[in-house]
Amino acid sequence: MSNCVSVVLGQNAWSVTYTTQSICTLKGSTVELTCSYTYPSGTVSTTFWFTKNYAEGNPVSLSDDPDYKGRVTYHRDKKNGHNLTITDLRESDSATYKFRFITDQTGGKYTGDPGVTLSVTDLLVKVTPYSRMSTWKT
C-alpha cells in the first residue's frame, strides 16, 4: 500500500503572466500587450493596465490617463486573459506597463511584476553610399 499526496498547484496563488517582457516598436504604430492572471477566490471586479502611480501609490488606469486619451483599448476574455492595445504610439509612451486586477475579496488587489517594457523609437536609417576609387596604371 502506497501513500498518495495530492497537491493542487496555484490554489492560493496570485499571479500575472505576460506574453512578452520587452517590445521595441516604431513611433506611429500600434502595439498589443497581453497577459493572463490567476487568483485564489472571489470575483474580479476591476482590471486595468498602468504606467504611473498617483496619490498614495494608487495606480491609474491608462484609459483615465490624459496622455493616452482615445488611444487605448482593453479586451478581457472569459479565461482570465487581458489585452491592451495602444494606437498612434509616441516616443513618450516608452515605459514599463503593468497589469493590475482587483477582486471582491478583502485585500484582493494584485499588480503583476515586472511588467512589459515598451520602447518606442523614431527609427531613422541613414544610408551612406559606398564609393570605391580605383587607380589604374597603364
From TrEMBL:
The residue ranges of the Immunoglobulin domain are 20-121
Q: Which residues form the signal peptide?
A: none
Q: Which InterPro entries match?
A: Ig-like_dom_sf (IPR036179), Ig-like_fold (IPR013783), Ig_CD22 (IPR056386), Ig_sub (IPR003599)
Q: Name one Pfam family in it.
A: Ig_CD22
The protein in question is named: Immunoglobulin domain-containing protein
Organism source for this protein?
Answer: Hucho hucho (huchen)
The opening ranks of the lineage are:
Eukaryota, Metazoa, Chordata, Craniata, Vertebrata
